[in-house]
Amino acid sequence: MSLARATVPLAGAPFLPPGPPFAARDLDAWDGIEFDLPPGDLRLRALYRGGREPVDVLANLVGYAEGWAEYPDYIDTLAPDSPVHEKKMLERALTLHHWGALRGLPTDAAGRRTVLDIGCGVGRFATWFLDRGDDVCLIDGDLRSLRHAVWHGAGRKGRLDAYWTTAEALPAVAEGFEAGFDVAVLAEILNYVERPTEVLAAVASRLKPDGYVLFSLEARYGWALSTDVIPGLGDGFFSGVAFRGGDRHVVCYDEAGVRTLFEGWDVEFVPSHWVLSGPFELLVGADVAHGAGKDEGRSALPQLLDWEQRFAADPVSAPLHRAWVGVARPKRR
Ligand SMILES: C[S@@+](CC[C@H](N)C(=O)[O-])C[C@H]1O[C@@H](n2cnc3c(N)ncnc32)[C@H](O)[C@@H]1O
Questions:
Q1: What percentage of the chain reaches a pLDDT higher than 90?
Q2: Each residue's pLDDT tens digit, 2-21
Q3: What is the pTM of this model?
Q4: What is the total count of domains within the chain?
Q5: CATH code of residue 311
Q6: Which of 211, 222, 240, 270 is deepest in the core (most CB within 10 A)?
Q7: Pocket of ligand 1 (CB under 6 A)
Q8: Which domain holds residue 200?
Q9: pLDDT (tens digit, 9 = 90+) per residue, 212-234?
Q10: Alpha helices (H) in the chain, listed in sequence order
């Protein structure tokens, strides 16, 4: 449900400007407020309270609930003092670089866009679009992450609204976004949903006629070998599916899998992430990300791209990239 339905026990919800969507610059009073929302997927309330996953795939949301309790600074990657802030900002710059090269990033001259960010997390990509003045509809199955996305969005240029729901239960119509979306961001989310093809069909029906999807996906082999993967999920290397109850369920994609997933779409994608969060991070050293938090990764990106190209060119490392990054447009009849 929209931020318009947010409640704050005892204190009451802060002032909301006209909307939805709501001018982010007028949402400063929401920063740090632990608001509640009616969940769009009724399974989420129990998960939020620490319950176990009703189906294997939703184990990720149990993992996030525990993560916020045990290592919040590793999840709130947008906080400047997060130990992984610089790395995550450089990773963002790398992903944006690929989306731009695939002609997926609208120019600022295109005016205000409507953006659907599914599995927005703490708002890594949403904040980028908000800074450009876009209208962003935030969706996440983890209320704690969604709150942080609103907090990080507050004070920026664009407008936002927020829905606590799963990708499997998108709002039928998001108020203020009835005309559809110019862009849907699906960054590191399709690996974690129950029926990704149905999610993509639901997204397609919410796009404007010339709307499109920006995506990143966990890649087979590279994901299983990465530095931030929890130990003991070796089966995932062989099967492409890594599962641990109460923690994680990840379906990793090879190239053919990405093409099958996007059947019915015009899709272009590239392999990415050999270094950051990838299997070769230790080899290169995480200091490749130094300073990326301060300038959105601009100064560190060229050196990272050099490394990426070297690993892409080597026949041994080439298939071991961590991610796929791409742009997809529904084929129109
Ligand atoms: C790896 S994070 C990616 C966050 C963000 N897109 C980014 O790239 O920084 C995955 C996010 O998806 C959310 N998520 C996991 N399963 C979900 C589901 N079934 N429906 C909606 N969100 C989900 C998690 O809560 C988490 O915030």
A1: 87
A2: 999 999 988 889 999 999 99
A3: 0.97
A4: 1
A5: 3.40.50.150
A6: 222
A7: 60-61, 64, 119-121, 124-125, 140-142, 145, 166-168, 187-189, 192-193
A8: 3-330
A9: 999 999 999 998 888 777 778 88
A10: 44-48, 59-70, 72-75, 85-101, 126-131, 143-153, 196-204, 235-239, 255-261, 281-284, 301-313
